[in-house]
Write a structure and sequence with these properties.
Blueprint lengths: L24 H16 L18 E8 L10 E8 L3 H4 L6 E6 L4 E5 L8 H18 L3 E8 L4 E8 L20
Antiparallel strand pairs: 1-2, 1-5, 2-3, 3-4, 5-6
């Protein structure tokens, strides 16, 4: 990843290569080389690059959690897109997944698609808590990739600022011109 990839004003998610499920030293070396090389082929070739290595999660359920509803701008709701398996399927656009809107404490407000049994009240509350906590830590609503592993533990994979939403513009007072004769 790079500090130029995601910010509050720009999202370049996917600009740099990510390599998943790497097994063995030769594959690891090749994956690191691919990630570093991906910075050189963008128009921001001088981007500082960091290669993050973490264990591959075995996801029963995964998805993307928005710390507000980006379709309506509603800050009292969290929008979740989820699917069986890794969230990469949603992030890459391979699947749309089930769409869920949660209240601030995980109460189910709406569902579009089949709701997996694994996403019960406990995990919905944990997702809502994760959205609130990341917003507090990072100073605003976040776009979060997450998974629930084989043991049922919710895991945060990645968090970045939400850059596109239906948030209404900040209210402004506009001076009206003085009425003429």
């Amino acid at each position: 990843s790079s500090v130029v990839e995601d910010s509050t004003t720009s999202s370049m998610a996917g600009r740099f290569v990510s390599v998943l499920d790497v097994v063995g030293w030769p594959a690891f070396v090749a994956a690191v080389s691919d990630v570093v090389a991906s910075a050189a082929v963008t128009e921001i070739a001088d981007a500082p690059m960091a290669v993050l290595v973490q264990p591959m999660g075995e996801a029963r359920l995964g998805g993307v959690l928005f710390g507000l509803d980006p379709l309506t701008g509603d800050r009292s709701s969290f929008r979740v897109s989820l699917t069986d398996g890794l969230p990469e399927q949603i992030v890459s656009g391979a699947v749309t997944g089930t769409q869920v809107v949660l209240g601030r404490h995980g109460r189910l407000r709406s569902v579009s698609g089949p709701l997996p049994a694994l996403l019960g009240a406990r995990h919905r509350a944990q997702l809502a808590r994760l959205a609130r906590r990341t917003a507090a830590v990072f100073g605003g609503p976040q776009d979060i990739e997450w998974l629930i592993d084989r043991g049922g533990t919710l895991r945060l994979l990645q968090s970045r600022p939400i850059t596109a939403s239906a948030l209404p513009p900040e209210p402004r007072i506009v001076d009206s011109p003085a009425a003429g004769p």
